[in-house]
Structures are given as structure tokens and as C-alpha cells.
Amino acid sequence: MATKHEIILQYIESLPVGDKISVRRIAKELEVSEGTAYRAIKEAENQRYVSTIERVGTIRIEKKKKENIDRLTFAEVVNIVDGQVLGGKSGLHKTLTKFVIGAMQLEDMMRYTDAGSLLIVGNRTKAHFTALKAGAAVLITGGFEASESSKKVADELDLPIISTSYDTFTVATMINRAIYDQLIKKEILFIEDIYVPYQETDFLRVNDEVKAYHEKNVQTKHAGFPVIDAHQKIVGIVTARDVIGKDHSESIEKVMTKNPITVTMKTSVATAGHRMIWEGIDLMPVINDYGILEGVISRQDVLKALQLAQRQPQQGETIDDIVKSQMKVLQEDDVAVEFTVTPQMTNQFGAISYGAFTTLLAEVGNYVLKIRKRGDSVAENMTIYFIKPVQMDSVLTVRPNILDMSRKFVKMEFDVFVGNTLVGKAMMMFQLLER
Fold first, then answer.
1. What value, to the nearest 5°, has the Cα angle with vertex 90 and ends 84 and 94?
2. End-to-end CA distance of the chain
3. Other C-beta atoms within 10 Å of 337: how many?
4. For the chain, which domains are there?
5. Contacts of 41 (CB under 8 A, 6+ apart)
6. Can you give the pTM of this predicted structure?
7. pLDDT confidence of 67, banded at 50, 70, 90?
8. Which residues contact 146 (CB under 8 A, 6 or more apart)?
């Protein structure tokens, strides 16, 4: 049976895109408290199918698919630039295909401005009106107003006119940064991208007998199953180890592992894989905030997804990507890696940052384990004995040394030099991600 919170979320998701949503409206229509309605609206905002805009309210927007997450809605643009909506509020849910800087003659500007565009321009009334007629939204910089005729057209065509106090260059930078961040998010795999949904999940109920486990095992060839109660809530997990030697009439509730390790839709695949290897488990239930089973994820699914992700081209460059791009292997046998400290890798004093230093060592360690055919690994913990300030544009040489290696763990020591001077020394423990 669905909870009030889930019923509200389902109701919000069923509303037409562009609809305005309020706590009072939800509370009245679904006969719930305003507190319950408020919490559900905030959850809908986290799930990215509503957006709250200052002085406008909360509107239903189209939930983005993974393939078009890099496209911003006009509602998101308003929040990014701390804007004020002057007209066309009913079009805030629409997505923009590109933005155009209006720093040219009107005729030239219109050659690049078409339907779905966002024209970023200052106090140029004719440009505002012409862009709207061409099917583009308008972002006015410098805090200027729009004419009444432009506002009227915006309302008629459902195309937002937004005003911001920032200048054109700052606004373009802010929007570009937001798109860039979206590209990075697009590359990160979450459980929601690869899980097996509830409708396709094989599970047992708490009042089943061990006999039911064996029947499921023969039917599906799976070795483990989540266990749920009458309300679809996860209460345990049962595997072959749990039923060995047990009578077929024994209750599943008595043999199952209670309080199993679970994940949610927003858990990253990398986190789930790390946890599965660390805990030595092959199956994890996927639940929502109320413990309701939404599906399962297997270790094989996780590892397959991670291997696929490594082969995908990166569109948004993270700190890890920048570090990797600066690494240069000097020699393969007795490994030594050269690294140039770029401005992005420094702290406020112009020296290599602690984060960049640890990322560098982790990447070097992962590289060493891969060339030794030990597969993928995760840095488990690190001890930095010392690190001296290393200035921008310095060239570091990292020399790793494996101290101990077992089936699951590797202990590695690192010496870091600038020229012949030792500037850092650390030890790191890696956990090997094996099938």
C-alpha cells in the first residue's frame, strides 16, 4: 500500500508540464497536512520534475532523461542567474537548445537566433521583441526592464523574458558552467540507470518456507533473493548459505539475513560496487526512502556498468580527468610517473592542493595495478607522512613501491620528487575489485 508521500509524488508527476504547484493546493486536493505536502514537493524538486523559482512559485517541469541532461530549462536559468521573470512564466518548463550573445547588429543577431534559443542581451528593446517573434526566450542583463509590448508577446507565445543584474559576460559564464556541470553528472552512473525493477525482480515473502527458495533457485538459477513483507517492505535477504542444511518446511523469516545492506536509486554505481566487494555480497536490494523494494542490483551488473563507463568519452572534465591528462609514464618496468602542476591543481597559496596530491597518488596506484593485471581497484585509505609546498608549473616525479599484495588488498608506498628533492611521501591501501 502506497504511503501519503508516495501518493503525492505520483499526483505531482501526473500533472501537465508547466502546471503551477503549491503546498496549499496539494494539501487541499489530496486532504493531507501542509507539512506532508511541503516535504513531497521538496522530494519532487530533488527528483528534478518540479522547479521552484523566486517570485514565481513551483512549476511542473519535464523530468530529464540521461541523454539530454545537459539541456537546461528556462526555470533553471532563472535560478542560475538570480533572475526575475518579467513575462512568459508559463514557458519556464521549456528547455533551451543554445544561447546567443547579443553583441552585434540586430540583423546579424537574428541569423543565429531561432526557436528554442535564449538571447542574452542588454537594454535593446527591438532585439527583445524580434527574438520573441522568432521563437526565442530573452535574458536581459544589467537589470534592465522589458517593454510592455515585449511582455505581452512573451505571455502569448509562452516564451520567458528574464532580467538579471549581472552583465552579459558573467551570465554567459554562469550558464556555461551549469551546462558543464550537467555534462559531468551525465557521465556518472547511478543505480537508477542499471537496476532490475521490482516488476522483473524475483523475491520471497516473509511467510514463505525454505521450499520456496529451492523452487525459485531451480526456476531462475539465482542464488539469492530479497525478502519482503505484505507491504512490499524489505525485511531481509536469503542466499544459498542461509538455507544449507535447513528443513524445507522451515520459515524463510527464521533463516534469512535481517537488515540487509541496501542502496537507493541515487546511489552511485561505483559506491555500490565498492560496498559489495567490501562486504562480500553478490546481490543488493534497491529501496526507496520508506524501505519499499524497488528492484535489485547484482555484482555482475555493477562491474559490467563500471567497465562500460570507462570506455565512454568524457564530455565534462573533472579534477580526476585533469590529473590524468597531466600524467606521463616515464618507464614501464620500474614505474615512474611525471606530472606537471597546473593552475587548476593549486590552492590559494599557489602550491599543489592536498586534493590534487591525493588524486595523483590514487591514479598512479591504479595504473600500477592495471599493468600488473590486477584489474580495477579502489583507494581504501591513505597516510601522508609529509608533503612540502610544490609550486605551480613544477614537474613532479612519482615513484610507487608495492609493499604487500594479497588477493583483495594492496599496500603501496609513494615517493614524490621535484628534480632530486623529495617533496612528499605517502602510503595507500587499495582494495581490488574482482569478480
1. 90
2. 37
3. 23
4. 4-60 (1.10.10.10), 66-187 (3.40.1390.20), 192-308 (3.10.580.10), 319-432 (3.10.129.10)
5. 8, 12, 21, 23, 26, 50, 52, 58
6. 0.51
7. very low
8. 86, 87, 125, 128, 138, 140, 154, 161, 163
